[in-house]
Amino acid sequence: MTEIPDISDKYAGQIGEVALGKGDYIAGGAKGMPFLSFENPSKRRPMIAGEVWDDIKDFPEMAAKMFDGRCEDPVEWANMWKELGVDMIMLRLIGADPFGKNKSPKEEAELVNRISEKTHLPIMVCGCGNGEKDIEVLTEVCNTVKGTRLIISKVDECEYKKLSTAAMANGHVILAFSNLDVNLAKQMNILLTDFGMDTKDMVMDPLMAALGMGLDYSYSVNERIRLAALNGDKMLQIPMVCDCTSSWEVNDAVAEDDGTMGSPEHRAVWWEVMTGTAAMISGADVLIVRAPGAADMLKIYASELTEVL
Amino acid sequence: MPTAIEFFKLLPKTNCKECGQPTCLAFAMQLANQKAKIEDCPHVSGEAKNTLNEASAPPVATVKVGEKNAINMGGETVLYRHERRFNNPIAYAVTVSDALDDEAVLKRIEYIRSLRFDRIGMVFKADMVCIRNDSKDADRFMKVCNLVKDNWDSPFVLESEDKDALIKAMDACKTFRPLVYGADKDTFDELIQAAKASKCPLAIKAGTLEDAAAMTEKAKAAGYNDIILDLQCNDIKALLEKQTAVRRAALKKKFKPFGYPMMNKVGSGEYAVMCAVISTLKYGSLVIFDDLKPYEALPLFTLRQNIYTDPQVPIQVKQGLYPINNPGEHSPIMFTTNFSLTYFTVRADIEKSKVPVWLQIVNTEGMSVLTAYSAGKFNPEHVVEAMQESGVLDKTDGKIIVPGLVARMSGKLQELVQRDVIVGTTESKNIPKHLKEITAQGQ
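Output (structure tokens, whole complex):
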């Protein structure tokens, strides 16, 4: 009888663990490539973060319908995600946009507090996309939201000092963004640690390109980041956040059925699930998801792959 | 794969140049890079040839399935796609039951053919039909095989639990080289002989890795190598772990018994698609569905296309003019790089705005906006050159919108084209808003 060779890889490093919320949620900790029990005994399921906007003027209508009218109020929306069993809320403070609702930093910080009190889930907080206003708003969020460790999304190499300072001073976690490149991701993490951040307070976003829109790049960048980290590169041993909602930008995902493509509602969910699956198979520790159906499937299948609920 | 030096040791070292290379060492290096075949050397000894062929046999066999529009399965040399392009894309088959009447069989084939999506420069489609012997009737099976032969011009699979039905059908279809599914421990000996005689590739069903190794070794001993392994994975966890274990053993441990393509039968519905997704990402060569819906097929086929692209070449679109939302003679001109990720993103955002725009793509060798700008591949001269080539400046008198990230070039560009140039957004997602604002101003 031929003997089957042992194929488990032995790694010199492991992914760091980052505590979130009240310390009751932990991201990261992988000791091998994703879901391979023969080399990765960590058995931690990737976290699922459900997306909430505080102004849904530009939120895709098809996605809005999936929430039974409960996405009008962000607190209620977040609560629905809690009922659906996600691990985190990804709160996009679109309402802060000076050309939109122009909500004040104080109003936005209060909203974060209300969602935290209602759901008791960890929250990732993201700005509206207006650079100056986002710094104001997120600084206020860092300073006034207490009792839960937030992820502040996100800093890049051009602008990271102000938000990192605010996050560090208040015990929050920073999301380090880089543009689809292993070396850029590493450089961003080095910038932050040189600035004084502890890797225990950092997660990274190497940009998850959606299925059909560059997923191949992201899949390989993620795998390379994860392999380098496991092989001992400390500056990459940081949990990875992948935003799968980019899948909603893909025309094939959401286009009306032309008679060959089938219902867009089903297709959009699958588009997000496949983007998310490629993300977690290549190393994602947190998946940001838009469709409730996609969150549900990703959670069930991630649980099955990890063998934990 | 042996190194150049290992090859060199076995060559005659006469530098006769008959292989087309200047020296034996140069030839050895070509061999190591898989750019030459040992047969190109007329003087190598038979013994050396055997040694080299054995050593340089690819770690995973390439198995050809079908004749017309044949599909190669396996032949992979790396575990991760960033190392080198995966060679042979996974194939997807959809089942036709022979319990259907003739008319329903034809309708079913038509449905499978309709799982096809034409995209710029690419066709995504279901590759194979799997004929399943649900009728348990060998004659009916043959009849349906004939219907498929006449109405489906791509490879197919013969599936039956009755080995005699399989042997009969594979003999009748052998010129089409169908995949025969499949041999288990009990039917192995007979099916391997039949497959060998008809030269049809054979799937081996093995519930454990030990069984798989034992059966492929037996096949090899019987002189047959056109094997596809079905590890009988019933869930995504087993599928991911077993397929990873088998492929790693073949590539990293050079474990020959696992050097074969792998396949899965997944049924239909949500879980089946999920199995196919995992198999597409991790080392599958064929997935057979009972059924596949269009809204499942399009994302799955797109995933396959993404995973099997060449990681070395940045995906590029062609330099040229791309009209979006039916632009006219006063529509604005936007321009960006030919990095496809940039192009698709910008295009999607312009489409979303519903504002008619001429989008000029500039060849930056696949670099993104900032990278290309700093590398000197995306300067005002390049942009103007591209615009002259496409003739866009004659098609519209609209303003030119410069990507916000390279606002610096607007002065120079304005000078060169003698036309109003305005600065656009730094982020693509803000394009719709910006376009709506400027068109509102224009009215």
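The first strand of chain B starts at residue 62 and ends at 65.
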